[in-house]
Design a protein that fits this description.
Elements lengths: L1 H13 L4 E6 L5 H16 L3 E6 L4 H13 L4 E4 L8 H9 L4 E4 L13 E3 L3 H18 L5 E7 L5 H14 L5 E8 L4 H15 L5 E4 L2 H13 L9 E6 L2 H8 L5 E4 L5 H12 L7 E2 L5 E3 H7 L6
Parallel strand pairs: 1-2, 1-3, 3-4, 4-5, 5-11, 6-7, 6-8, 8-9, 9-10
Antiparallel strand pairs: 10-12
Helix pairs in contact: 2-10, 3-4, 5-6, 7-8, 9-11
The structure holds beta-D-galactofuranose.
Length: 309
């Protein structure tokens, strides 16, 4: 019996915890904060050692972090690429070091798809289309309204910015009355979103009827600018945004935001499971998408208590 219990103890020592090196974009938005919390909680719950690096939205910092994970010989490297391009060489270094790479949240543009094992994240083009479809419906219900649009784009070169722009433009092309009169990056932050909206208001003024913001944080910044200009957000200027963070539900409950297209940040459990499967030599799907919906203002008050982020 003693030998059996001793033998049973060995695996506990033998199975050293999985070590994942994670390079996060930054801490630019409520969405990012929720995404980081989900990843850290899932790693903790699974007994995984997580080496976490915040890149302050700079690609060079992510490349440095990935190189340091390679030097530390982590079991798996995971990251949310701040922009789509410029990753080939560092991902080739990870491949040569035989360390599997998992992408979460944002995608990369690489010729060689073997440079990462799986991409877990939303379909941003579809999110842009959903924003466009909401506006097409709004236009149908308000046939005599002028509908000039200003657009606050996400971080220049980021997959969600490129794709949300593309999906939205593709859908609104069905109605020639829907025109984007100004479009500029607000870098996914409240501060920059407010600053750029102030500039839009100065140059376009009453000519702005709709704001399409690629995330809720920029929309919330823009709402402040609209109010400081003496206009009513959600009424004088219809506002469509993306993410579905708590701040958006609060703005909708106050009648200042008209709709938010959900982008699910709770990717932690999927990331940990995929990393465990990769290390165990199990096959993993190349592409994993997550469920998400659209929340117009009239659903906000009811949905707010259910929100997890
Ligand atoms: C989308 C994510 C975006 C969010 C922003 O998956 O990459 O980055 O929409 C965040 O809020 O800054």
């Amino acid at each position: 019996a003693a030998a059996a219990s001793f033998a049973a103890a060995i695996p506990a020592f033998a199975a050293k915890p999985l070590v994942i090196g994670f390079s996060q974009v930054g801490a630019e938005s409520e969405w990012r904060t929720a995404n980081t919390a989900s990843i850290k909680a899932a790693a903790k719950a699974a007994g995984v050692t997580l080496k976490f690096a915040d890149a302050q939205q700079q690609q060079q910092n992510q490349i440095k972090a990935i190189r340091s994970f390679i030097a530390q010989r982590v079991d798996v490297i995971a990251f949310s690429p701040v922009v789509e391009t410029g990753w080939e060489s560092v991902l080739r270094e990870a491949k040569n070091a035989k360390i599997p790479v998992i992408l979460t949240d944002r995608a990369v543009n690489v010729g060689d798809q073997s440079l990462y094992v799986s991409f877990i994240g939303s379909d941003f083009v579809e999110e842009g289309r959903r924003a466009g479809h909401w506006l097409l419906d709004y236009a149908k219900k308000n046939p005599n309204k002028q509908l000039n649009i200003v657009e606050l784009q996400g971080t220049t070169g980021a997959a969600p910015a490129n794709d949300r722009k593309r999906g939205f433009a593709e859908v609104i092309a069905a109605n020639p009355k829907l025109k984007i009169v100004r479009s500029q990056t607000g870098d996914f932050t409240r501060a920059k979103g407010k600053e750029v909206m102030e500039a839009f208001l100065k140059s376009e003024g009453k000519n702005i009827n709709v704001l399409y913001a690629h995330n809720d944080d920029m929309a919330i910044g823009a709402i402040q600018a609209i109010e400081e200009a003496g206009l009513k957000p959600g009424k004088d200027i219809i506002i469509i945004s993306v993410d579905g963070v708590k701040g958006a539900f609060e703005a909708m409950a106050q009648g200042k935001l008209n709709v938010t297209v959900e982008c699910n940040p709770l990717l932690g459990p999927l990331l940990i499971k995929t990393a465990q499967d990769v290390v165990a030599g199990k096959p993993v799907p190349k592409r994993v998408t997550v469920q998400e919906g659209v929340y117009p203002a009239d659903l906000a008050a009811k949905e707010l208590p259910n929100r997890k982020y």
